[in-house]
Design goal:
- The chain is an alpha/beta fold.
- Helix content is 27%, strand content 40%.
- The protein contains four helices and eight strands; from the N terminus they run E-E-H-E-H-H-E-E-E-E-E-H.
- Strand 6 and strand 7 form a beta hairpin.
- Helix 2 crosses helix 3.
- The chain starts with 12 loop residues before the first strand and ends in a 15-residue tail after the last helix.
Length: 191
């Protein structure tokens, strides 16, 4: 089945570096992953990296990314559409669950710290300044967890923080870009 959002290989798409809150150095990673996901689903689609939103806005003499600014971006950078995105990452406060055995004594304790993430992206047609596609993803991943019981059994699992950040961004991009990939459908053929 063809992608729900088919891109024209004769048109050039610009991508503004994703704004990332809550992580250092993930803005470049999120943008690169997004480009990679689109081009894996639709090889040959030309994508131009335009820079950060502030660099692009300065380049067209505008102060915010609205329809008028996007039309100017299309003219200045010779792109037919622009991809914009934001990623928000936040480490949760430790969550502790205490299980009391029949309310009389401590039975087990569990603790968890997780990374919550949200990605929003849109594809905007620069001739009209209007969105033609939007996608999003909200996910979380464990950073650390521990458990223990009164009988002396316990466990501790602490993940590589940088790998977990990368994995969460990768998973969110993969989910959000599903419309750009072809899918397969099994059908029974009548004899």
């Amino acid at each position: 089945v063809p992608p729900r959002m088919a891109l024209d290989r004769n048109q050039t798409i610009g991508i503004v570096r994703f704004d990332v809150e809550g992580a250092r150095d993930e803005d470049q990673n999120a943008t690169s992953r997004f480009m990679e996901a689109i081009q894996q689903g639709q090889p040959g689609v030309p994508i131009v990296e335009l820079g950060t939103s502030s660099e692009v806005l300065t380049g067209v003499g505008k102060s915010q990314l609205n329809g008028e600014a996007l039309q100017e971006i299309g003219k200045k950078y010779n792109v037919d559409a622009v991809i914009l995105g934001t990623v928000k990452l936040k480490e949760s406060q430790p969550k502790v669950d205490v299980n009391l055995n029949q309310g009389l004594r401590l039975d087990t304790v569990r603790a968890q710290v997780r990374l919550d993430g949200h990605l929003d992206a849109k594809l905007v047609n620069t001739s009209r300044g209007a969105s033609v596609w939007t996608g999003s993803s909200t996910r979380w991943i464990n950073l650390a967890q521990a458990s223990g019981s009164t009988v002396g059994v316990g466990s501790l699992n602490v993940s590589d923080k940088n790998r977990q950040y990368e994995k969460l961004v990768y998973d969110m991009v993969n989910e959000a870009t599903g419309d750009f990939r072809p899918t397969w459908k099994k059908e029974r053929v009548a004899k």
